Amino acid sequence: MGKVLKIIVGEYQGDDIKMYINEDLIDQIKERADIVDIISSYLTLNRSGSNLVGLCPFHNEKTPSFTVSSSKQFFHCFGCGESGDSITFIMKKENLDFKEAVEFLADKLGIELDGKEVDTKEIEEKRRLYEINRQAGRYFHELLLKNNTSLDYLKRRGMELSEIKRFGIGFAPDEWGNLYKFLKSKGYVSGEIEKIGLINKKKGNNGYYDRFRNRIMFPIIDRNNQIIGFGGRVIDETMPKYLNSKESLIFNKGNNLYGLNLVKKYSNKKNILLVEGYMDVIALFAKGINYAVASLGTALSPNQAKLLKRYGEEIYIAYDSDLAGTKATLRAIDIMSIEGVKPKIVQLPKGMDPDDYIQNKGKIRFERLLKEALSPIDYKIILNKEKFNINNFEEKILFTKEISKVIKDLKSPIEEDVYIEKISQETGITKEAIEKEVRGNYYNNFNNKKENTKIEKPNRENINSRIQSAHIKAEIDLIKLMIIDKEYFYIIRDKILEESFSNLACRKIYNIIKTKYENTDILSIDDLIKEALNIGVNENIIKELKKDSLEYKPTNIEKVIDDLTNTLILNNLEEKRKKTIKAIKELEEDAQKMELDRVHFKELCIELTNLNKEIKSIRYE
Predict the structure, then answer these.
(1) How far apart are CA 294 and CA 276, in angstroms?
(2) Which biological process annotations from GO are given for this protein (predicted)?
(3) Which one of 221, 372, 420, 607 is at 20 to 30 Å from 146 when CA atoms are compared?
(4) CA-CA distance, 303 to 355, in Å (whole number)?
C-alpha cells in the first residue's frame, strides 16, 4: 500500500508520490483565509454594493471588472472569465499547483502541516463508505418507485414524483435482512456496512439485521454531492418518527446542511432559508423556494452557521412554531451572532411548520412571511410580550428588565437608542430609566464624568457579589412565599430539592417550614423566627424575612415561582459546571494523570456538555 502526506481530499499526483489534501484542512484554510484580505494584498479593491471591485490581475484593463464577494468567498472577472476561491487565486497569481497553494496559504495563516506519512487505508475506507451509501441510496430509491403504499403516502403529503427523484427519496421495506444481503452481493463486508450505520449486530454477535425498516428514506447529500448518510421516517407511527444514520468517518451532521447541494445548484445563493426537517426543504423546493436547507435536527452547530454564512448573503430562520422550535431559534440566533450573521426570523402561525404552511397557503403567502421576517431583537421583544402582560404594573417592569438585557447585547449605539425609545413608548417607562437599566453603572459613570473617555472594567468581585446577592434574594423570596401559603410550599417543594438552597440559613428555615406544615396549615411568622434564632440562623436573613413578608403577594404566582426556582437551579448547575471545568483543567495540565484516566476525562467532557445544555434550556424557557 502506498504512502501519502497527511495534508489530505482531492488528490495531487507528483514526484512519484500520490498526495491527498484533507477536506477538513481545506475547509479550515478557506475559513481563515478571508478572500478579501488575500486579494487586497495584491491589488486595490473598492466597495461596490455588497461586493468589492478592482482591476483584474490576470489581464490588462482600464475599467475594473474583477469582482470579489466577501459573503461567498469567491472572485470573478467579467472581463476574462477567471473565477474561483482563495486557493484558486493563489494558484493563478503565484503560478502554483494545488498542493503548493495550500501550503502557501497554510504558512501565511500559521496552520501547521505536520508532514507525517500515513497509510492510504483511511482514504480507501472513505471511498468505499461513500460507495456503500450510493448503492444503498439507489436500492432504496428503486424500491420506492415500485411500492404503491409508500408513493401514495408521499403524494398525500403533497410530494410529486419529480421531487421524489430530485431528492433521491427511497423506501426501506419492513424486512430484517434485505439491504444487508444486497450490499453483501455487491462485495462489501459486514464490518464496513455496520460502521456506516446501515446494519446492526444481532444479540450474541449472531449475524446482522437491517437498521432501517418500513421507513421513507431521505439520503443526506453533502455539498460535493456524495451521500453521507440517511434519515428514515416511519409510515405507521408505531416507532420513533425519525431514525438517522449514526456518525461515521464520512458523516457528521454538525458539519452538513440537508439540501445545500441543491441550493448550490439551483438558487442564486443570495438568500438561504434555514428550516428543521427534510419534508420542509422538499415542500419548499416543490413550490419554487429553492434556497431552503435543514439543520439535521433543531440544534444548529457553529460549523453549520459557517456554511450558511459562506453560501448565503441573507439568512432566514423558519423553524417550527412550537416551544422546541422557539428555543432552537433563540439558540440559532446566538450561534449565528458569534459568526457575524444577523438572521431574519420568519414567524409561522402557531402549530404550523413550513411544510404545512406552503402546502395550505402557497408560495405567494409564504414569500409575504419572508418579507415580514423579524430582526433578532424584534423577535425577542414579541416573545417577551407573549410572556408578560405589560398592562400589569409588575409584569411591565419584568418585561422592561428582560428587554433591557437584549438591548444591552446590541453592538450599535444607534440601534440601542432606537429600541430604548421604542420600549419607552410601548411601556410608558421613561427613556432615561431604560437607559440606566441597559447601561447600568456605565451610564451613570458616563453622565457623571463626561470628560473621561475611558470606562473602567467592572470589578469582578463586585459582579460576583451582585450575582450572589441576587441568588440569596431569590431564596428569601421563596421562603416568604412558603410562609404565606401552604399550597405555595407544595408547589416549590415539587420543583426544587432542599440542597437547592445554597445559603445555610435559608436551608434551615426551609426545614423548619417543612416540619411545621406536617402538623398545621397556617404558619406564625413570629414562631418561625423564634425557632430560627434558637438554632443560630443569621440575623440578617431574619431581618430580610420580617421585611414585608405578610404583604409579599406577587401577581402571576406560578410564573414568579418558576423564575425564582429556576434562579436556584441555575445557580446549582453553574456551581457544578465550575467544578467540572476545574477537574478537566487539572487533568489537561497533568499529562501522566490524563494518560491513566482517559475514561474519566471523557466522562467529564460529556458531563460539561450536558450541563451547558441544561443551563441553556432553562435560560431560554
Answers:
(1) 5
(2) DNA replication, synthesis of primer
(3) 221
(4) 25
What does the block give as the cell for 93? 497569481
CB atoms closer than 10 angstroms to residue 507:
15
What 3-state DSSP class applies to 348? coil
3-class secondary structure, 548: coil
- The domain 255-374: what is its CATH number? 3.40.1360.10
Residue 237: CB atoms within 10 A of its CB come to 8
The percentage of the chain sitting over the pLDDT mark of 90, rounded to a whole number, equals 31
C-alpha cell at 435: 437607559
C-alpha cell at 94: 503565484
The pLDDT, as a whole number, for residue 455 is 33
Measure the CA–CA gap between 302 and 120, rounded to whole angstroms: 30
CB 410 within 8 A of CB 422: no
123 upstream amide cis, omega within 30 of 0: no
Per the rule left: phi > 0, alpha: psi between -120 and 50, beta: everything else, 556 is left
What cell numbers appear for 390 in the block?
Answer: 405589560
The Cα 308–Cα 293 span in angstroms is 9
- Domain spans of the chain, in order of start: 3-118, 121-251, 255-374, 380-456, 461-553, 568-619
Report the alpha-carbon distance of residue 228 to residue 133 in Å, rounded: 7
Q: What is the pTM of this model?
A: 0.58
Mean pLDDT score across all residues of the chain: 81
Nearest C-alpha neighbor of 85 from the set 34, 128, 22, 21: 34
Other Cβ atoms less than 10 A from the Cβ of 534: the count is: 9
Q: What is the DSSP letter of 498?
A: G
SS3 491: helix
Q: Which CATH superfamily is domain 3-118 in?
A: Zinc finger, CHC2-typedomain (3.90.580.10)
Per residue, the 3-state secondary structure of 427-477, as one string, reads HCCCHHHHHHHHHHHHHHHHHHCCCCCCCCCCCHHHHHHHHHHHHHHHHHH
Phi, psi of 237 (to 5 degrees): 65, 15
Which ranges of 341-375 would DSSP assign to H, the alpha helix? 354-361, 363-371
Q: What whole-number distance in Å separates Cα of residue 353 and Cα of residue 325?
A: 9
Q: Residues 188, 191, 193, 195: is their CA dihedral positive or negative?
A: negative
CATH number of the 461-553 domain:
1.10.860
Q: What does residue 375 show for φ and ψ, rounded to 5 degrees? A: -70, 160
The CATH class for the domain spanning 121-251 reads: alpha beta
- 46-63 pLDDT, tens per residue? 888 878 899 999 988 888
Average pLDDT, integer, range 331-335? 91
